[in-house]
User: Fold Type I restriction enzyme R protein N terminus (HSDR_N) from Spirosoma endophyticum.
Amino acid sequence: MDPLNLPTFDYKTKQVEGKPYIFDLIRRKYVRLSPEEWVRQHIVNLLLTHYAYPKALIRSEGGLTLNTTQKRTDIVVFNRQGQPFLIVECKAPHITLTQNVFDQIARYNHVHRAPYVVISNGLTHYCCSIDHTTADVQFMDDFPAFV
Assistant:
């Protein structure tokens, strides 16, 4: 896998029927290693080790219903009250982070109503705070601190 603009970490991989798998610390199992999964695992590591987000409050590949269609949110971090705090949409490194990606996470956040959203392709990251009362979106210089 390609190097990312994220801290490296010790990860576990294995081959299953000739295909690469990586151990997911959140789901506690090996999952198929795709370029998007490579980014997701690096983001999870970043949240755990550099921002001290509690592992128990992170959900990876969680389902949600959007207009009667089943979708999956890459990463959702919950606050201590069990409400969505941060959602992250991960893309493969070769995917450009366009308005379509922002629109996708906005649709997901219409359901979750998290105060923070992040999109990343492992090379570029955009973090935003969302005021759901005023619909104000502010770009941030860094990931939000977990409180």
